[in-house]
Each structure stands twice: as C-alpha cells, then as structure tokens.
Amino acid sequence: xxxxxxxxxxxxxxxxxxxxxxxxxxxxxxxxxxxxxxxxxxxxxxxxxxxxxxxxxxxxxxxxxxxxxxxxxxxxxxxxxxxxxxxxxxxxxxxxxxxxxxxxxxxxxxxxx
Amino acid sequence: xxxxxxxxxxxxxxxxxxxxxxxxxxxxxxxxxxxxxxxxxxxxxxxxxxxxxxxxxxxxxxxxxxxxxxxxxxxxxxxxxxxxxxxxxxxxxxxxxxxxxxxxxxxxxxxxxx
Lengths: 113, 114
Prior knowledge:
The complex is a heterodimer. Chain A is mainly β. Chain A has no helices and 11 strands. In chain B, a hairpin with an 8-residue loop joins strand 9 (about 85-95) and strand 10.
C-alpha cells in the first residue's frame, strides 16, 4: 500500500541546535516533494519544494534533501528558535497525477529556549 | 490584499443537517482543493477542481459535495450522509494546473456536530 510517514512523536530540541525531520514514502513515484509549516488552528504555509532530480535545496535556515533510492526526504532547520515551534508536513506529488498533493501526518517540533 | 478566505471559522451542526462551508480566493488561481484534518493526522483530500464547472473526487469524497460555478469560489457541502463530520476543514488553491506551484491555504473551518 502507498504510505507517507513522518515521525508521529514530537521532536523537542534546544534553541540554537539543528532540527532534522524525516519523511519516508513507499509505493509512490514522486515528481516532487513539498514541505509546509502548520501552526495550531491555522492552515499550512508552504516552505520549500524539491524535485525528484534534485538532491538538496536551501532557503535561509532551511534545508531539504531528497533521496529517491532511500525514498526519503529530510528537512533541516539550523540555528533553531522557539518561533520555529510548529507542525511540519511533507507532501508529495506523484508523477502519475501532478494535480494533487498527498500529505504525511506531520511532525510537531518544539524548540526550547 | 490577496488570499483565501473561509467562513465561518467555527460551525456547529446538529446530526442530520446539511451544512455548507465557504471558500473564496482572489488569487486568480485555477485549481482549488478541499481537505479534512483530524487530530494528529495529516490532510486528506475530499474534492478538487482544476477549472470552473469541473471537479474530481479525492480520497474521502463520500458524504460531501462541491460546486465550482465561479473561478474564485469552491463551496463544500457536508451532507447528513457523512458519518463522522466533526473535523477541521481546509480549503486551498494553486496557480496552474499540473505545475510545480505550491498550494495556498485558507484559515480553516472547524466543524462540530452536536
């Protein structure tokens, strides 16, 4: 069966450290993958997109990697801040249907001062 | 001020009643989407529309209906046939069909069935 899995347990880290979130998928042929941030009671906000032929993408303190052999994407936040505390969702677009996103369950990140 | 609006923010419904959730966008986007989010879960696609007067079922369309009579509007009706309608409903839009564009989300409507 097709699955997109993210760590269901919250990730707790200290301010200033690098947070690494994982997104694994099975039985998909992704065209590209996106990462979103969601604050409680609000809609998700787009952060980064990475295509299946790209290994790494960066934007300010954010970095995304994509390994199609391992079927995994890693999302890094360097020099994390308490304001980075939120739920982070990965979403992929299948090469068979590029009209819709398929979301993972999300990982909650808590950054402590 | 461009964006997506959803109304109402909170909605209470008695069992057996139909209810319609509003979604409006002024981003001039072609594609629009409705998702449902339950506690501790990701977003699940209910319906989506790539163009006016056309829409497709998502993964959990049963008990829901939509219309797309105008480009800027994509209302969702939760019918009495939906067995467990209490959830957080999110509407989104995207700039071009089949492109790499990200989705823009509204603030959501929290529906509670009493």
